[in-house]
Protein backbone atom coordinates (compact mmCIF):
# COMPACT_ATOMS: atom_id res chain seq x y z
CA UNK A 1 0.00 0.00 0.00
CA UNK A 2 1.29 3.45 -0.90
CA UNK A 3 1.42 5.86 2.05
CA UNK A 4 1.01 9.58 1.41
CA UNK A 5 4.14 11.54 2.50
CA UNK A 6 3.67 13.69 5.58
CA UNK A 7 0.91 11.54 7.06
CA UNK A 8 1.24 11.54 10.86
CA UNK A 9 2.78 8.39 12.36
CA UNK A 10 -0.39 7.58 14.34
CA UNK A 11 -2.44 7.75 11.13
CA UNK A 12 -0.01 5.46 9.33
CA UNK A 13 -0.21 2.95 12.17
CA UNK A 14 -3.98 3.14 12.20
CA UNK A 15 -4.09 2.49 8.46
CA UNK A 16 -1.81 -0.49 8.82
CA UNK A 17 -3.58 -1.74 11.95
CA UNK A 18 -0.35 -1.59 13.88
CA UNK A 19 -1.12 1.07 16.49
CA UNK A 20 -0.21 -1.29 19.33
CA UNK A 21 3.10 -2.24 17.79
CA UNK A 22 6.13 -1.24 19.85
CA UNK A 23 7.57 0.96 17.14
CA UNK A 24 4.34 2.98 16.87
CA UNK A 25 3.75 3.62 20.55
CA UNK A 26 4.28 7.15 21.71
CA UNK A 27 7.80 7.42 23.11
CA UNK A 28 8.25 8.67 26.65
CA UNK A 29 9.95 12.08 26.63
CA UNK A 30 13.60 12.18 27.59
CA UNK A 31 13.87 12.51 31.36
CA UNK A 32 15.32 15.46 33.18
CA UNK A 33 18.36 14.55 35.27
CA UNK A 34 19.23 16.13 38.62
CA UNK A 35 22.57 15.18 40.17
CA UNK A 36 22.98 16.43 43.74
CA UNK A 37 26.32 16.15 45.54
CA UNK A 38 26.67 17.12 49.18
CA UNK A 39 30.24 17.84 50.17
CA UNK A 40 31.64 16.00 53.20
CA UNK A 41 28.51 13.95 53.94
CA UNK A 42 28.79 10.95 56.26
CA UNK A 43 26.08 8.32 55.72
CA UNK A 44 25.35 8.13 59.44
CA UNK A 45 24.27 11.78 59.42
CA UNK A 46 21.13 10.69 57.55
CA UNK A 47 18.00 9.34 59.16
CA UNK A 48 17.53 6.46 56.73
CA UNK A 49 21.03 5.16 57.47
CA UNK A 50 21.46 5.55 61.22
CA UNK A 51 18.04 6.57 62.53
CA UNK A 52 19.48 9.86 63.67
CA UNK A 53 19.66 13.34 62.21
CA UNK A 54 16.93 15.54 60.79
CA UNK A 55 16.96 14.78 57.05
CA UNK A 56 13.38 14.20 55.85
CA UNK A 57 13.99 15.23 52.25
CA UNK A 58 16.90 12.85 51.68
CA UNK A 59 15.17 10.11 53.66
CA UNK A 60 12.07 10.38 51.47
CA UNK A 61 14.24 10.22 48.36
CA UNK A 62 15.89 7.08 49.72
CA UNK A 63 12.53 5.53 50.57
CA UNK A 64 11.26 5.99 47.02
CA UNK A 65 14.46 5.00 45.26
CA UNK A 66 17.39 2.61 45.41
CA UNK A 67 19.62 3.71 48.25
CA UNK A 68 23.13 2.52 49.03
CA UNK A 69 24.16 3.26 52.60
CA UNK A 70 27.89 2.99 51.98
CA UNK A 71 29.08 3.65 48.43
CA UNK A 72 32.85 3.95 48.04
CA UNK A 73 34.59 7.18 47.08
CA UNK A 74 37.93 6.82 45.27
CA UNK A 75 39.51 9.79 47.05
CA UNK A 76 38.61 11.98 50.07
CA UNK A 77 39.16 15.31 48.30
CA UNK A 78 36.57 17.53 46.61
CA UNK A 79 37.92 18.21 43.10
CA UNK A 80 39.40 14.73 42.44
CA UNK A 81 36.26 12.99 43.71
CA UNK A 82 33.90 15.12 41.63
CA UNK A 83 36.11 14.60 38.59
CA UNK A 84 35.66 10.85 39.17
CA UNK A 85 31.89 11.22 39.57
CA UNK A 86 31.55 13.07 36.26
CA UNK A 87 34.08 11.00 34.30
CA UNK A 88 33.70 7.49 35.73
CA UNK A 89 37.48 7.34 36.04
CA UNK A 90 39.80 6.88 38.99
CA UNK A 91 42.20 9.68 39.97
CA UNK A 92 45.18 7.68 38.71
CA UNK A 93 43.52 7.64 35.28
CA UNK A 94 42.09 11.17 35.06
CA UNK A 95 45.19 12.71 36.65
CA UNK A 96 43.58 15.03 39.23
CA UNK A 97 45.12 13.89 42.51
CA UNK A 98 44.61 17.03 44.60
CA UNK A 99 42.55 20.19 44.86
CA UNK A 100 44.02 23.11 42.96
CA UNK A 101 45.02 21.02 39.95
CA UNK A 102 43.34 21.32 36.56
CA UNK A 103 40.96 18.85 34.93
CA UNK A 104 42.55 17.71 31.63
CA UNK A 105 40.98 19.09 28.48
CA UNK A 106 40.81 15.68 26.82
CA UNK A 107 38.94 13.95 29.66
CA UNK A 108 35.43 12.93 28.50
CA UNK A 109 32.77 14.03 30.98
CA UNK A 110 29.11 13.18 31.58
CA UNK A 111 27.93 16.70 30.74
CA UNK A 112 29.65 16.50 27.34
CA UNK A 113 27.60 13.45 26.36
CA UNK A 114 24.30 14.87 27.61
CA UNK A 115 24.91 18.19 25.88
CA UNK A 116 25.51 16.43 22.57
CA UNK A 117 22.18 14.65 22.98
CA UNK A 118 20.22 17.86 23.28
CA UNK A 119 20.21 18.36 27.03
CA UNK A 120 20.30 21.82 28.51
CA UNK A 121 23.23 21.61 30.96
CA UNK A 122 23.82 23.65 34.10
CA UNK A 123 25.91 23.36 37.24
CA UNK A 124 25.73 25.18 40.57
CA UNK A 125 28.73 24.70 42.85
CA UNK A 126 29.27 26.08 46.32
CA UNK A 127 32.96 25.68 47.25
CA UNK A 128 36.26 27.10 46.00
CA UNK A 129 37.78 23.76 44.87
CA UNK A 130 35.11 23.49 42.13
CA UNK A 131 35.36 27.00 40.71
CA UNK A 132 35.78 27.43 36.98
CA UNK A 133 39.52 28.00 37.09
CA UNK A 134 40.03 24.28 37.81
CA UNK A 135 38.25 23.16 34.64
CA UNK A 136 35.27 21.05 35.72
CA UNK A 137 32.96 23.58 34.07
CA UNK A 138 33.84 22.23 30.64
CA UNK A 139 30.77 20.88 28.88
CA UNK A 140 28.26 22.87 30.95
CA UNK A 141 26.45 25.62 29.06
CA UNK A 142 25.78 27.34 32.38
CA UNK A 143 28.23 27.08 35.31
CA UNK A 144 27.37 29.11 38.39
CA UNK A 145 30.25 29.23 40.87
CA UNK A 146 29.51 32.49 42.65
CA UNK A 147 30.61 32.27 46.29
CA UNK A 148 29.23 34.91 48.63
CA UNK A 149 29.67 33.65 52.19
CA UNK A 150 32.63 33.29 54.52
CA UNK A 151 35.96 35.02 54.40
CA UNK A 152 39.36 34.62 52.75
CA UNK A 153 40.22 30.98 52.11
CA UNK A 154 36.93 29.62 53.41
CA UNK A 155 34.48 31.29 51.07
CA UNK A 156 31.47 29.27 50.00
CA UNK A 157 27.83 29.67 49.04
CA UNK A 158 25.26 28.57 51.55
CA UNK A 159 22.62 26.00 50.62
CA UNK A 160 19.84 28.57 50.42
CA UNK A 161 21.64 30.54 47.71
CA UNK A 162 22.67 27.47 45.76
CA UNK A 163 19.19 26.00 45.85
CA UNK A 164 17.60 29.26 44.73
CA UNK A 165 20.02 29.71 41.82
CA UNK A 166 19.53 26.14 40.63
CA UNK A 167 15.74 26.35 40.98
CA UNK A 168 15.60 29.52 38.88
CA UNK A 169 17.63 27.87 36.11
CA UNK A 170 15.54 24.68 36.17
CA UNK A 171 12.32 26.67 35.72
CA UNK A 172 13.60 28.69 32.75
CA UNK A 173 12.86 26.21 29.95
CA UNK A 174 10.34 23.39 30.22
CA UNK A 175 10.50 22.36 26.57
CA UNK A 176 13.95 20.78 26.49
CA UNK A 177 15.26 18.09 28.82
CA UNK A 178 17.87 19.35 31.23
CA UNK A 179 20.80 17.99 33.22
CA UNK A 180 21.54 19.91 36.39
CA UNK A 181 24.39 19.28 38.80
CA UNK A 182 23.88 20.99 42.17
CA UNK A 183 26.70 20.89 44.71
CA UNK A 184 26.15 21.82 48.37
CA UNK A 185 29.22 22.64 50.48
CA UNK A 186 27.70 23.35 53.89
CA UNK A 187 28.74 20.20 55.85
CA UNK A 188 32.37 21.02 55.08
CA UNK A 189 34.46 22.45 57.93
CA UNK A 190 33.91 24.98 59.51
CA UNK A 191 30.49 23.86 60.78
CA UNK A 192 28.29 26.94 61.26
CA UNK A 193 24.63 26.04 60.66
CA UNK A 194 21.83 28.52 61.34
CA UNK A 195 20.90 28.21 65.00
CA UNK A 196 17.51 26.62 64.30
CA UNK A 197 19.21 23.66 62.60
CA UNK A 198 21.68 22.77 65.37
CA UNK A 199 21.46 19.16 66.48
CA UNK A 200 22.20 17.65 69.91
CA UNK A 201 25.41 15.90 70.88
CA UNK A 202 29.13 16.54 70.40
CA UNK A 203 28.77 16.61 66.60
CA UNK A 204 25.66 18.79 66.68
CA UNK A 205 27.19 21.55 64.56
CA UNK A 206 28.12 19.12 61.80
CA UNK A 207 24.75 17.35 61.89
CA UNK A 208 23.12 20.77 61.90
CA UNK A 209 24.85 21.66 58.64
CA UNK A 210 23.49 18.43 57.16
CA UNK A 211 19.97 19.21 58.41
CA UNK A 212 20.18 22.72 56.96
CA UNK A 213 21.34 21.34 53.61
CA UNK A 214 18.56 18.74 53.64
CA UNK A 215 15.95 21.46 54.05
CA UNK A 216 17.14 23.28 50.94
CA UNK A 217 17.48 20.05 49.01
CA UNK A 218 13.80 19.50 49.78
CA UNK A 219 12.92 22.93 48.38
CA UNK A 220 15.00 22.23 45.26
CA UNK A 221 13.27 18.90 44.71
CA UNK A 222 9.89 20.59 44.88
CA UNK A 223 10.90 22.94 42.06
CA UNK A 224 12.46 20.18 39.98
CA UNK A 225 9.36 18.01 40.18
CA UNK A 226 6.97 20.86 39.47
CA UNK A 227 9.04 22.11 36.54
CA UNK A 228 9.36 18.62 35.05
CA UNK A 229 5.60 18.25 34.75
CA UNK A 230 4.87 15.10 32.78
CA UNK A 231 8.52 14.64 31.85
CA UNK A 232 10.23 11.89 33.89
CA UNK A 233 12.81 13.01 36.46
CA UNK A 234 15.89 10.98 37.34
CA UNK A 235 17.43 12.12 40.62
CA UNK A 236 20.85 10.98 41.82
CA UNK A 237 22.11 12.12 45.23
CA UNK A 238 25.52 11.37 46.67
CA UNK A 239 28.61 12.94 48.29
CA UNK A 240 32.25 13.30 47.33
CA UNK A 241 33.57 11.91 50.65
CA UNK A 242 32.75 11.72 54.35
CA UNK A 243 34.15 13.38 57.46
CA UNK A 244 36.24 11.65 60.14
CA UNK A 245 34.97 13.70 63.13
CA UNK A 246 37.82 12.39 65.27
CA UNK A 247 37.87 8.74 64.22
CA UNK A 248 41.45 7.47 63.92
CA UNK A 249 42.48 10.90 65.30
CA UNK A 250 41.54 12.54 62.01
CA UNK A 251 39.37 15.62 62.46
CA UNK A 252 38.22 16.33 58.90
CA UNK A 253 39.19 14.32 55.80
CA UNK A 254 41.88 13.77 53.18
CA UNK A 255 44.62 12.41 55.42
CA UNK A 256 43.64 8.75 55.84
CA UNK A 257 41.60 6.29 53.75
CA UNK A 258 39.48 4.74 56.50
CA UNK A 259 35.78 4.25 55.85
CA UNK A 260 34.87 7.24 58.03
CA UNK A 261 35.89 9.44 55.09
CA UNK A 262 35.60 6.99 52.18
CA UNK A 263 31.96 5.86 52.45
CA UNK A 264 29.11 8.04 51.20
CA UNK A 265 25.37 7.67 50.60
CA UNK A 266 24.24 7.09 47.01
CA UNK A 267 20.59 7.25 45.91
CA UNK A 268 19.02 6.68 42.47
CA UNK A 269 15.39 7.79 42.23
CA UNK A 270 13.22 7.29 39.13
CA UNK A 271 9.66 6.14 39.89
CA UNK A 272 8.52 3.32 37.66
CA UNK A 273 12.02 2.63 36.38
CA UNK A 274 14.08 2.02 39.51
CA UNK A 275 12.86 -0.49 42.09
CA UNK A 276 12.90 0.98 45.62
CA UNK A 277 15.19 -0.65 48.15
CA UNK A 278 18.17 -0.13 50.43
CA UNK A 279 21.41 -1.99 50.86
CA UNK A 280 25.02 -1.93 51.94
CA UNK A 281 26.54 -3.06 48.64
CA UNK A 282 29.91 -1.43 48.05
CA UNK A 283 29.09 0.26 44.75
CA UNK A 284 31.33 3.16 43.80
CA UNK A 285 31.19 6.81 42.80
CA UNK A 286 32.92 5.93 39.53
CA UNK A 287 29.76 3.96 38.71
CA UNK A 288 27.55 7.08 38.72
CA UNK A 289 28.23 8.46 35.22
CA UNK A 290 28.07 5.03 33.49
CA UNK A 291 24.79 4.30 35.29
CA UNK A 292 23.13 7.59 34.35
CA UNK A 293 24.00 7.16 30.67
CA UNK A 294 22.85 3.55 30.67
CA UNK A 295 19.54 4.46 32.33
CA UNK A 296 18.98 7.10 29.65
CA UNK A 297 19.87 4.69 26.85
CA UNK A 298 22.73 6.91 25.66
CA UNK A 299 26.19 6.03 24.44
CA UNK A 300 28.66 5.33 27.25
CA UNK A 301 31.73 7.42 27.91
CA UNK A 302 34.64 6.09 25.82
CA UNK A 303 36.64 4.86 28.82
CA UNK A 304 35.57 4.38 32.42
CA UNK A 305 36.78 2.46 35.43
CA UNK A 306 33.23 2.32 36.77
CA UNK A 307 30.41 -0.01 35.76
CA UNK A 308 26.74 0.63 35.10
CA UNK A 309 24.41 -0.28 37.95
CA UNK A 310 21.31 0.01 35.73
CA UNK A 311 20.60 -3.73 35.62
CA UNK A 312 20.80 -3.99 39.39
CA UNK A 313 18.59 -0.94 39.85
CA UNK A 314 15.82 -2.68 37.92
CA UNK A 315 16.04 -5.85 39.99
CA UNK A 316 18.86 -7.69 38.21
CA UNK A 317 22.39 -8.47 39.33
CA UNK A 318 24.27 -5.52 40.78
CA UNK A 319 27.71 -4.75 39.38
CA UNK A 320 29.90 -4.65 42.50
CA UNK A 321 33.62 -4.65 41.79
CA UNK A 322 36.81 -4.11 43.81
CA UNK A 323 37.56 -0.51 44.76
CA UNK A 324 40.87 1.30 44.46
CA UNK A 325 41.14 4.13 47.00
CA UNK A 326 43.86 6.71 47.42
CA UNK A 327 44.94 9.96 48.99
CA UNK A 328 48.01 11.92 48.01
CA UNK A 329 47.36 14.61 50.61
CA UNK A 330 49.95 13.32 53.14
CA UNK A 331 52.54 13.67 50.36
CA UNK A 332 51.45 16.89 48.67
CA UNK A 333 50.75 18.77 51.91
CA UNK A 334 53.35 17.37 54.29
CA UNK A 335 55.93 15.34 52.36
CA UNK A 336 54.88 12.04 53.95
CA UNK A 337 53.82 8.81 52.25
CA UNK A 338 50.67 8.80 50.12
CA UNK A 339 48.14 6.06 50.87
CA UNK A 340 46.48 3.56 48.53
CA UNK A 341 43.95 0.90 49.48
CA UNK A 342 42.20 -2.06 47.84
CA UNK A 343 38.68 -2.90 49.00
CA UNK A 344 37.19 -6.26 47.97
CA UNK A 345 34.70 -8.81 49.36
CA UNK A 346 34.50 -7.30 52.83
CA UNK A 347 38.24 -6.74 53.25
CA UNK A 348 40.36 -3.61 52.97
CA UNK A 349 44.13 -3.62 52.51
CA UNK A 350 45.90 -0.27 53.04
CA UNK A 351 49.24 -0.04 51.30
CA UNK A 352 51.19 2.14 53.72
CA UNK A 353 54.80 1.92 54.96
CA UNK A 354 53.20 -0.09 57.78
CA UNK A 355 50.46 -2.04 55.93
CA UNK A 356 46.98 -2.51 57.38
CA UNK A 357 44.27 -5.12 56.80
CA UNK A 358 40.69 -4.92 58.06
CA UNK A 359 37.71 -7.31 58.00
CA UNK A 360 35.00 -4.72 57.44
CA UNK A 361 31.86 -6.69 58.35
CA UNK A 362 32.81 -7.51 61.96
CA UNK A 363 35.00 -4.41 62.31
CA UNK A 364 33.34 -1.53 60.39
CA UNK A 365 35.31 1.12 62.27
CA UNK A 366 38.64 -0.50 61.32
CA UNK A 367 40.03 -0.86 64.81
CA UNK A 368 41.72 -4.29 64.49
CA UNK A 369 44.62 -4.46 62.06
CA UNK A 370 44.77 -8.14 61.02
CA UNK A 371 47.79 -7.94 58.74
CA UNK A 372 49.81 -10.27 60.99
CA UNK A 373 47.28 -13.10 61.40
CA UNK A 374 45.60 -12.97 57.95
CA UNK A 375 48.77 -13.23 55.88
CA UNK A 376 47.21 -15.00 52.89
CA UNK A 377 44.36 -12.49 52.61
CA UNK A 378 46.75 -9.56 52.93
CA UNK A 379 49.02 -11.02 50.25
CA UNK A 380 46.05 -11.62 47.92
CA UNK A 381 44.76 -8.07 48.21
CA UNK A 382 48.24 -6.58 47.96
CA UNK A 383 48.88 -8.57 44.79
CA UNK A 384 45.56 -7.41 43.29
CA UNK A 385 46.40 -3.80 44.13
CA UNK A 386 49.88 -4.14 42.66
CA UNK A 387 48.61 -5.65 39.43
CA UNK A 388 45.95 -2.98 39.03
CA UNK A 389 48.42 -0.14 39.56
CA UNK A 390 51.43 -1.53 37.67
CA UNK A 391 50.58 0.40 34.50
CA UNK A 392 51.74 4.05 34.51
CA UNK A 393 49.29 6.47 36.05
CA UNK A 394 48.30 9.77 34.54
CA UNK A 395 49.94 12.50 36.57
CA UNK A 396 48.56 15.98 36.87
CA UNK A 397 49.95 18.53 34.50
CA UNK A 398 49.58 22.28 34.80
CA UNK A 399 46.72 24.13 33.20
CA UNK A 400 46.02 23.47 29.57
CA UNK A 401 44.85 26.87 28.32
CA UNK A 402 46.76 27.26 25.01
CA UNK A 403 46.26 31.03 24.79
CA UNK A 404 47.56 31.58 28.30
CA UNK A 405 50.57 29.32 27.81
CA UNK A 406 51.44 31.06 24.52
CA UNK A 407 51.37 34.40 26.30
CA UNK A 408 53.71 33.09 28.99
CA UNK A 409 56.11 31.85 26.35
CA UNK A 410 56.07 35.25 24.68
CA UNK A 411 57.08 36.74 28.03
CA UNK A 412 60.00 34.32 28.34
CA UNK A 413 58.36 32.23 31.06
CA UNK A 414 57.00 28.65 31.22
CA UNK A 415 59.08 26.30 33.27
CA UNK A 416 57.05 24.68 36.05
CA UNK A 417 54.72 22.96 33.63
CA UNK A 418 56.25 19.51 33.81
CA UNK A 419 53.83 16.96 35.28
CA UNK A 420 53.82 16.35 39.00
CA UNK A 421 56.12 13.41 39.66
CA UNK A 422 55.02 10.32 41.54
CA UNK A 423 55.98 10.41 45.24
CA UNK A 424 59.12 8.55 46.35
CA UNK A 425 58.73 5.32 48.29
CA UNK A 426 60.75 6.16 51.40
CA UNK A 427 58.40 8.67 53.04
CA UNK A 428 57.17 8.44 56.67
CA UNK A 429 53.90 6.65 57.41
CA UNK A 430 51.13 9.22 58.08
CA UNK A 431 50.11 7.17 61.15
CA UNK A 432 53.49 7.92 62.68
CA UNK A 433 53.11 11.65 62.10
CA UNK A 434 49.66 12.14 63.58
CA UNK A 435 50.99 14.18 66.52
CA UNK A 436 52.66 16.60 64.12
CA UNK A 437 49.47 16.75 62.09
CA UNK A 438 47.55 17.66 65.25
CA UNK A 439 50.02 20.44 66.07
CA UNK A 440 49.55 21.81 62.56
CA UNK A 441 45.79 21.76 63.08
CA UNK A 442 46.33 23.93 66.16
CA UNK A 443 48.39 26.35 64.06
CA UNK A 444 45.69 26.41 61.38
CA UNK A 445 43.05 27.23 63.96
CA UNK A 446 45.19 30.09 65.27
CA UNK A 447 45.62 31.43 61.74
CA UNK A 448 41.86 31.43 61.26
CA UNK A 449 41.53 33.44 64.48
CA UNK A 450 44.14 35.93 63.17
CA UNK A 451 46.43 35.01 66.06
CA UNK A 452 49.42 35.07 63.75
CA UNK A 453 52.17 35.30 66.39
CA UNK A 454 50.78 32.29 68.25
CA UNK A 455 50.44 30.37 65.00
CA UNK A 456 54.01 31.21 64.05
CA UNK A 457 55.22 29.91 67.41
CA UNK A 458 53.58 26.53 66.80
CA UNK A 459 54.85 26.36 63.22
CA UNK A 460 58.40 27.19 64.33
CA UNK A 461 58.17 24.33 66.81
CA UNK A 462 57.12 21.90 64.05
CA UNK A 463 59.84 23.11 61.68
CA UNK A 464 62.49 22.58 64.34
CA UNK A 465 61.75 18.86 64.14
CA UNK A 466 60.82 18.68 60.43
CA UNK A 467 62.58 21.49 58.53
CA UNK A 468 61.08 20.42 55.20
CA UNK A 469 57.48 20.02 56.29
CA UNK A 470 55.59 21.52 53.35
CA UNK A 471 52.51 22.58 55.26
CA UNK A 472 54.48 24.20 58.07
CA UNK A 473 56.71 26.11 55.65
CA UNK A 474 53.81 27.54 53.67
CA UNK A 475 51.74 28.45 56.73
CA UNK A 476 54.78 29.94 58.43
CA UNK A 477 55.36 32.14 55.40
CA UNK A 478 51.73 33.27 55.52
CA UNK A 479 51.94 34.00 59.25
CA UNK A 480 55.13 36.02 58.80
CA UNK A 481 53.52 38.03 56.02
CA UNK A 482 50.55 38.83 58.26
CA UNK A 483 52.98 39.91 61.00
CA UNK A 484 54.67 42.35 58.58
CA UNK A 485 57.91 40.34 58.49
CA UNK A 486 58.15 40.06 54.70
CA UNK A 487 61.91 39.56 54.63
CA UNK A 488 61.71 36.48 56.85
CA UNK A 489 58.69 35.30 54.90
CA UNK A 490 60.66 35.40 51.64
CA UNK A 491 63.32 33.03 52.98
CA UNK A 492 60.77 30.58 54.34
CA UNK A 493 58.68 30.66 51.18
CA UNK A 494 61.67 30.23 48.89
CA UNK A 495 62.30 26.99 50.73
CA UNK A 496 58.65 26.04 50.34
CA UNK A 497 58.71 26.63 46.57
CA UNK A 498 61.98 24.77 46.11
CA UNK A 499 60.54 21.69 47.83
CA UNK A 500 57.17 21.79 46.02
CA UNK A 501 57.28 23.98 42.88
CA UNK A 502 53.75 22.90 41.90
CA UNK A 503 52.09 24.24 45.05
CA UNK A 504 50.09 27.17 43.70
CA UNK A 505 49.59 28.88 47.05
CA UNK A 506 53.31 28.77 47.82
CA UNK A 507 53.91 30.63 44.56
CA UNK A 508 51.22 33.16 45.50
CA UNK A 509 52.64 33.72 48.97
CA UNK A 510 56.23 34.09 47.72
CA UNK A 511 55.13 36.48 44.98
CA UNK A 512 53.32 38.56 47.57
CA UNK A 513 56.31 38.63 49.92
CA UNK A 514 58.68 39.66 47.11
CA UNK A 515 56.32 42.45 46.04
CA UNK A 516 56.36 43.77 49.59
CA UNK A 517 60.17 43.76 49.45
CA UNK A 518 60.22 45.63 46.15
CA UNK A 519 61.78 42.67 44.29
CA UNK A 520 59.33 43.03 41.43
CA UNK A 521 61.01 41.04 38.67
CA UNK A 522 61.65 38.09 40.97
CA UNK A 523 58.04 38.37 42.09
CA UNK A 524 57.01 38.30 38.41
CA UNK A 525 58.62 34.87 38.11
CA UNK A 526 56.34 33.60 40.86
CA UNK A 527 53.21 35.14 39.32
CA UNK A 528 54.18 33.63 35.97
CA UNK A 529 54.59 30.23 37.58
CA UNK A 530 51.19 30.59 39.24
CA UNK A 531 49.67 31.64 35.90
CA UNK A 532 51.09 28.48 34.36
CA UNK A 533 49.82 26.26 37.15
CA UNK A 534 46.36 27.87 37.07
CA UNK A 535 45.99 29.72 33.74
CA UNK A 536 42.41 30.81 34.45
CA UNK A 537 43.29 32.46 37.76
CA UNK A 538 42.79 36.12 36.89
CA UNK A 539 44.52 37.52 39.98
CA UNK A 540 47.75 35.76 38.98
CA UNK A 541 47.81 37.61 35.63
CA UNK A 542 46.87 40.88 37.28
CA UNK A 543 49.74 40.59 39.74
CA UNK A 544 52.14 39.50 36.98
CA UNK A 545 51.30 42.68 35.06
CA UNK A 546 51.73 44.80 38.20
CA UNK A 547 55.12 43.22 38.98
CA UNK A 548 56.42 43.72 35.45
CA UNK A 549 55.16 47.32 35.35
CA UNK A 550 56.80 48.18 38.66
CA UNK A 551 59.96 46.33 37.61
CA UNK A 552 60.43 48.57 34.57
CA UNK A 553 59.07 46.18 31.94
CA UNK A 554 56.00 48.02 30.58
CA UNK A 555 55.84 46.18 27.25
CA UNK A 556 55.84 42.76 28.93
CA UNK A 557 53.38 44.07 31.51
CA UNK A 558 50.97 44.96 28.72
CA UNK A 559 51.09 41.40 27.41
CA UNK A 560 50.20 40.03 30.86
CA UNK A 561 47.48 42.65 31.27
CA UNK A 562 45.95 41.59 27.96
CA UNK A 563 45.52 38.05 29.31
CA UNK A 564 43.99 39.42 32.50
CA UNK A 565 41.58 41.48 30.41
CA UNK A 566 40.64 38.39 28.41
CA UNK A 567 39.87 36.45 31.58
CA UNK A 568 37.96 39.38 33.01
CA UNK A 569 35.89 39.65 29.82
CA UNK A 570 35.17 35.92 29.88
CA UNK A 571 34.15 36.22 33.51
CA UNK A 572 31.86 39.13 32.81
CA UNK A 573 30.16 37.21 30.03
CA UNK A 574 29.64 34.31 32.42
CA UNK A 575 28.18 36.66 35.01
CA UNK A 576 25.79 38.10 32.44
CA UNK A 577 24.59 34.60 31.62
CA UNK A 578 24.09 33.87 35.32
CA UNK A 579 22.54 37.03 36.66
CA UNK A 580 21.79 39.42 33.82
CA UNK A 581 23.38 42.77 32.97
CA UNK A 582 22.82 44.35 36.38
CA UNK A 583 25.49 42.09 37.90
CA UNK A 584 27.70 41.76 34.86
CA UNK A 585 30.85 42.88 36.62
CA UNK A 586 30.69 40.68 39.69
CA UNK A 587 32.34 37.55 38.32
CA UNK A 588 36.01 38.59 38.42
CA UNK A 589 37.19 40.93 41.11
CA UNK A 590 40.33 42.99 40.60
CA UNK A 591 42.86 42.24 43.36
CA UNK A 592 43.81 45.35 45.31
CA UNK A 593 46.91 47.11 44.04
CA UNK A 594 48.04 48.16 47.49
CA UNK A 595 51.43 49.78 47.97
CA UNK A 596 52.58 46.68 49.81
CA UNK A 597 52.07 44.46 46.76
CA UNK A 598 49.52 41.81 45.98
CA UNK A 599 46.70 40.57 48.11
CA UNK A 600 47.93 38.28 50.86
CA UNK A 601 46.85 34.70 50.19
CA UNK A 602 44.58 33.08 52.72
CA UNK A 603 45.68 30.01 54.60
CA UNK A 604 44.11 26.93 53.12
CA UNK A 605 42.97 28.70 49.95
CA UNK A 606 42.75 25.57 47.80
CA UNK A 607 40.61 23.94 50.50
CA UNK A 608 39.86 20.25 50.82
* Contiguous uncertain segments of 5+ residues: 1-25, 575-608
| Termini gap | 68 Å
Shape annotation: globular
Give the strand order, joined by hyphens, for the main sheet: 4-3-5-1-6-7-2-8
Largest sheet: 8 strands, mixed
What structural class do you assign from the helix and strand content? alpha/beta
Question: Roughly what is the average pLDDT, rounded to an integer?
Answer: 87
What is the beta-strand fraction?
A: 5-15%
What is the tally of helical segments? 22
- The amount of helix comes to 40-55%
What radius of gyration results from the CA coordinates? Answer: 25 Å
Beta-strand segment tally? 12
Helix and strand arrangement:
Blueprint: H1 9-16, E1 32-38, H2 47-50, H3 56-64, E2 66-72, H4 78-87, H5 91-94, H6 110-116, E3 120-124, E4 142-144, H7 159-170, E5 178-184, H8 204-228, E6 233-239, H9 259-262, E7 263-269, E8 277-279, H10 288-296, H11 310-313, E9 323-327, H12 329-334, E10 339-344, E11 347-351, E12 356-359, H13 375-388, H14 402-410, H15 434-448, H16 452-465, H17 470-482, H18 486-499, H19 504-517, H20 520-533, H21 538-550, H22 554-579
Parallel strand pairs: 1-5, 1-6, 2-8, 3-4, 3-5
Antiparallel strand pairs: 2-7, 6-7, 9-10, 10-11, 11-12
